[in-house]
């Protein structure tokens, strides 16, 4: 308790808090004369003394201020005061320059450690652009900019602009060299800039196919010994000679480049060796090419070189060489990661996000393209050498399959088996193809779907629609997203005339693969059968945008426009077909028919004549041409067409009668008589021929007239008897039908009747291909029956053969017998045939060729 002190009652516990100490009051320092005087002296510019490092420069000198009296401070070392200097003299201050103090500060200046009273910084020293060195730097920058612009222009596809920029860069670089020579700094020429300018100029010459200029520019670089490694540019020169097909020169420069490149650049030497091998391959020197490619495959194997080695051995017919090269090809390491690394294996969200990010990046795309290229080369090589390495192609395929199964490309073995089946198809050995494809029924879903698709295709070609439908279902069950399987299924439904269901399958195929041209084509045909012409037209127009210059698609579009009544559009589309296939006789005949319907006889004659020139056996075209020349009174021109018709249909007497009538109408009665006599020998009971023989013999005063008259009466009597028999037979049959109807009149029985069929039937064969080739069905021909009435209403009349009511033109005005008639009749009395269209030529049906086989 002795240490406890009690507070006095009068004592204030909170006293002293409001006391003011003027030492810490800094607001009036500017008006403090003593403090300002201290700042103006050297004493005010010195750092404060501390206990750790006592000051030595203020010993004994009193410090005066407004807060206290002057106190003499002694130096810790007893040294004299160094701050006392004479008035106006500058005191050296070097130890504290970093704090902002300088020794040049005069007495009386104020302390300005932050430089606030120094004013703005002096302006930067301006560059003298007239100086030679400055001009050179500016010119070098312009040259570099031009090189960059040239490269950018080439990358954007404007090669001509890139060449102009390269030429301008060369001109400025030459001016730069002259500038340096004039300024006496020729030793400082920028060789790298000169090399860049020349190399870019040579490249742009090469890209613009100005090969002589490019070679000259490369020579300038190669011959200059001041450039580093100019020898490798001889590879570029060799490439130019290769483009010019100057293969000996190309090999020479490749070898020169190979000699000038050290062994340290192994990759570059391998590429040059590969170029040499390709040149030997182009020259047909397969043994030299094999030597180069084998060296590369030993040193640094790659897929392209291995494939070229297989081709060279195939060209030389070396079976063992082909086998060895194929084994080397499938053993080339791709150097890409496994696909499993892109499959999320854990529940870690961060890891899965990384996998999703790299799944479609450029590196993965490069790996995928590289693998696809390798598989393509291996498949092509196997299909190429399989028939050549063994006595039969089946044994060759089996060997290739065994080799592939033992390699890193195991999944290609099944594809080779399917190609084996397709080869059987191309050789028309369908049984072997079917047996090969049936072996895949128990394999994985992808291969099973492909095999079942091909089997469905084969059975569809054989018109075994039940089996085709079965295997189409099997392919769809194995892979519902297989568009080829859906197209085949739609085709099997189409032939059963269930068009709505077929359209659904075709639409589903298009949903799975929008580029499935087979499904789009078949969908258009289905809409035509459903009489949805606008929808069909839309399908074929879309297909035309995908398959430019496809004559089948354009024919369908023209046919649809014709059915829609727009003949001008139909003619325009057929003209596009003619531009693609100018020698198609059926398209030419169709154009003639459309022009004839439009009343343009001259155009119709042109196209019918062209059709006859390419295919002189079309009876409809022959009929139209013969009738046209008869209608225009050019009987001599009509004779050749009717004679052609006689050769095509020798059992039809009408064509021979037309030939004889043309001779008679043209005034060549002797030739007409001979023709009628020949007809009589072939057809002795023909009444028309005997009538003309009687008339001609009478006019010409021949003695055979009585004989012909007797034969005519006998033939007429025979004809009358035959007509009476036919008439009586018809009457008896009609009476029998009436009696049966009367007998059944008391019974009300419904009778099912089938609709009357058109005389022009549609024959559309739809075939799908399970692989990438275009589905090529026969063209629809069921449009004339629906458009015949439309053609009858047009102003242009159609041409038909004349009727048989024209009297014989005699040279003398004789009275003709009443029974004698001419099958041709006079032009003025000839009936108009606008209601009958003789020319019903349509797009011809074609058989399915080998080009429709699946791949």
From TrEMBL:
Here the segments flagged for biased composition (Basic and acidic residues) are 714-734, 829-840
State whether keyword Nucleus applies: no
Q: Which InterPro entries match?
A: TPR-like_helical_dom_sf (IPR011990), TPR_rpt (IPR019734)
TPR repeats, residue ranges:
231-264, 270-303, 483-516, 551-584, 585-618, 619-652, 653-686
User: Which keywords annotate this record?
Assistant: TPR repeat
Q: Where is the composition biased (Polar residues)?
A: 746-759, 797-811
**Carries keyword Nuclease?**
no
Listed name of the protein: Intraflagellar transport 88 homolog
What organism is this sequence from? Oryzias latipes
């Amino acid at each position: 308790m002795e240490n406890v002190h009690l507070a006095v009652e009068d004592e204030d516990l909170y006293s002293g808090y409001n006391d003011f100490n003027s030492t810490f009051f800094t607001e009036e320092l500017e008006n403090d004369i003593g403090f300002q005087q201290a700042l103006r002296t050297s004493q005010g510019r010195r750092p404060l003394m501390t206990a750790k490092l006592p000051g030595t420069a203020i010993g004994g000198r009193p410090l005066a201020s407004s807060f206290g009296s002057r106190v003499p401070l002694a130096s810790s070392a007893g040294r004299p005061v160094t701050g006392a200097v004479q008035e106006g003299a500058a005191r050296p201050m070097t130890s504290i320059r970093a704090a902002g103090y300088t020794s040049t500060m005069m007495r009386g200046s104020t302390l300005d450690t932050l430089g606030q009273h120094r004013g703005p910084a002096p302006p930067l020293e301006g560059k003298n652009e007239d100086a030679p060195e400055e001009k050179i730097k500016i010119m070098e920058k312009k040259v570099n900019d031009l090189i960059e612009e040239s490269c950018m222009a080439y990358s954007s596809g404007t090669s001509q602009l890139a060449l102009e920029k390269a030429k301008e860069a060369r001109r400025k670089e030459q001016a730069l060299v002259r500038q340096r020579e004039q300024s006496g700094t020729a030793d400082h020429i920028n060789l790298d800039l000169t090399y860049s300018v020349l190399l870019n100029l040579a490249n742009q010459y090469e890209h613009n196919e100005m090969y002589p200029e490019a070679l000259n520019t490369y020579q300038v670089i190669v011959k200059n010994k001041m450039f580093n490694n100019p020898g490798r540019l001889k590879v570029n020169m060799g490439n130019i000679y290769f483009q010019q097909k100057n293969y000996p020169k190309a090999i020479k420069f490749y070898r020169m480049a190979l000699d000038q490149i050290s062994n340290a650049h192994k990759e570059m030497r391998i590429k040059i060796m590969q170029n040499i091998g390709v040149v030997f391959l182009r020259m047909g020197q397969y043994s030299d090419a094999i030597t180069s490619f084998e060296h590369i495959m030993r040193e640094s194997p790659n897929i392209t070189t291995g494939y070229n080695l297989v081709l060279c051995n195939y060209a030389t017919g070396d079976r063992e060489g082909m086998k060895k090269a194929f084994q080397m090809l499938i053993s080339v390491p791709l150097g890409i990661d496994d696909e499993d690394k892109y499959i999320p294996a854990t529940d870690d969200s961060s890891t899965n996000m990384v996998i999703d990010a790299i799944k479609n990046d450029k590196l993965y795309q490069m790996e995928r393209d590289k693998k696809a290229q390798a598989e393509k080369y291996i498949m092509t090589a196997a299909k190429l050498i399989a028939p050549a390495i063994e006595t039969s192609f089946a044994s060759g395929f089996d060997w290739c399959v065994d080799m592939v199964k033992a390699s890193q490309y195991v999944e290609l073995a099944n594809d080779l088996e399917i190609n084996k089946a397709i080869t059987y198809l191309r050789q028309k050995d369908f049984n072997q193809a079917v047996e090969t494809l049936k072996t895949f029924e128990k394999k994985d879903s992808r291969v099973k779907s492909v095999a079942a698709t091909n089997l469905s295709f084969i059975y569809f070609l054989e018109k075994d629609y039940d089996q085709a439908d079965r295997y189409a279902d099997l392919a769809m069950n194995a892979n519902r997203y297989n568009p080829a399987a859906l197209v085949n299924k739609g085709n099997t439904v189409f032939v059963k005339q269930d068009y709505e269901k077929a359209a659904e399958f075709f639409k589903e195929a298009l949903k799975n693969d929008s580029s499935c041209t087979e499904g789009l084509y078949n969908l258009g045909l289905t809409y035509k059968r459903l009489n949805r012409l606008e929808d069909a037209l839309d399908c074929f127009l879309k297909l035309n945008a995908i398959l430019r210059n496809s004559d089948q698609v354009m024919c369908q579009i023209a046919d649809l426009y014709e059915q829609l009544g727009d003949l001008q559009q139909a003619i325009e589309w057929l003209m596009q077909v003619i531009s693609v296939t100018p020698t198609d006789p059926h398209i030419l005949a169709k154009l003639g028919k459309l022009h004839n319907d439009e009343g343009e006889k001259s155009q119709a004659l042109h196209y019918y004549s062209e059709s006859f020139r390419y295919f002189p056996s079309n009876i409809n075209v022959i009929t139209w041409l013969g009738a046209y020349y008869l209608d225009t009174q050019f009987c001599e021109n009509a004779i050749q067409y009717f004679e052609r018709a006689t050769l095509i249909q020798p059992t039809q007497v009408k064509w021979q009668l037309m030939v004889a009538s043309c001779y008679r109408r043209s005034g060549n009665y002797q030739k007409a008589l001979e023709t009628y006599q020949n007809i009589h020998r072939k057809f002795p009971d023909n009444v028309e021929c005997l009538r003309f023989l009687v008339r001609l013999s009478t006019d010409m005063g021949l003695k055979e007239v009585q004989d012909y008259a007797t034969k005519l009466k006998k033939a007429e009597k025979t004809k009358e008897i035959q007509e009476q028999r036919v008439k009586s037979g018809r009457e008896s049959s009609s009476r029998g039908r009436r009696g049966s109807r009367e007998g059944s009149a008391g019974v009300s029985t419904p009778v099912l009747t089938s609709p009357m069929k058109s005389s022009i039937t549609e024959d559309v064969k739809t075939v799908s291909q399970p692989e990438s080739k275009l589905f090529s069905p026969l063209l629809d021909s069921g449009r004339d029956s629906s458009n015949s009435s439309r053609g009858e209403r047009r102003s242009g009349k159609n041409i038909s053969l004349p009727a048989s009511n024209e009297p014989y033109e005699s040279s003398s005005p004789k009275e003709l017998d009443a029974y004698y008639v001419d099958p041709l009749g006079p032009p003025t009395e000839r009936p108009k045939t606008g209601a009958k269209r003789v020319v019903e030529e349509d797009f011809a049906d074609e058989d399915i060729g080998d080009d429709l086989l699946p791949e």
